[in-house]
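In response to the reviewer comment on reproducibility (Comment 2.3), we provide here a single inverse folding case reported in full, input and output, so that an independent group could reproduce the run without further information from us. The structure tokens appear first.
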């Protein structure tokens, strides 16, 4: 039985190696919502037009790199046009062995200057959510963005920029192997769920899945802290605290 499994794995590796030599670096994988029966009335992947995820064949063939190795690989990155205007690459920060990773959109002005994620006003709001809303210490989680360089004027990252930087994010997640990912806002959620057509107000608060070579990570979308700075109504506050409460309860179960 074990021999059969080993042979199957070796066969899969050979096939992926063959695909790679043919220039195919990504394969689609089936993705299913993990919405439990109690949330069955919530939107499904189909109604939200979510596509199957793409899994990078590199992550199957090679063991995950460490965060240090990934940072070294980024180096003085010029893989997309954002390098022209950045002051610093904002790689990510926090506990590399955490069970909880937050993924935002991209560095803002303060982050660009300091080279650290979420250190401005939106960062203070995120810290408040982590510490007051979840009862964790910020240093115990890991925080990063879908692009590591600041988009000029804090605009959304463009598709070519996200595509260029996405392998680094995928490798960071594979290196940390968290139990839960919280995506902050629409661009981060759309990137990790591989769908352009999502509305964060509809998709937030519902469990989804993110696949890596070693398994499935639960993913909870919620609002970006910068949105909260502009719209911190009692209703939005209630929704965000409801989302992070689900995450806290899930982490207690694991
Ligand atoms: S955003 Fe990412 S891909 Fe683009 S230059 Fe910065 S590190 Fe490189």
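Designed residues, in position order:
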């Amino acid at each position: 039985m074990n021999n059969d499994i080993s042979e199957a794995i070796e066969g899969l590796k050979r096939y992926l190696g063959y695909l790679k030599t043919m220039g195919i670096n990504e394969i689609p994988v089936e993705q299913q919502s993990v919405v439990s029966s109690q949330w069955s009335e919530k939107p499904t992947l189909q109604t939200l037009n979510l596509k199957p995820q793409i899994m990078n064949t590199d992550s199957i063939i090679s063991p995950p790199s460490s965060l240090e190795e990934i940072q070294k690989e980024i180096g003085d990155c010029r893989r997309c046009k954002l390098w022209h205007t950045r002051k610093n690459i904002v790689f990510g920060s926090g506990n590399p062995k955490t069970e909880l990773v937050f993924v935002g959109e991209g560095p803002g002005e303060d982050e660009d200057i300091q080279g650290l994620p979420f250190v401005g006003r939106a960062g203070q709001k995120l810290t408040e959510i982590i510490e007051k809303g979840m009862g964790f210490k910020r240093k115990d989680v890991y925080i990063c963005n879908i692009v590591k360089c600041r988009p000029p004027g804090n605009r959304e990252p463009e598709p070519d920029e996200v595509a260029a930087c996405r392998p680094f994010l995928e490798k960071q997640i594979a290196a940390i192997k968290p139990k839960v990912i919280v995506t902050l806002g629409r661009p981060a959620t759309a990137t990790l769920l591989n769908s352009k057509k999502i509305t964060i107000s509809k998709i937030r608060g519902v469990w989804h899945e993110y696949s890596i070579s070693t398994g499935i990570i639960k993913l909870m979308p919620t609002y970006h802290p910068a949105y909260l700075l502009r719209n911190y109504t009692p209703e939005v506050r209630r929704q965000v605290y409801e989302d992070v409460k689900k995450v806290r309860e899930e982490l207690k179960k694991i």
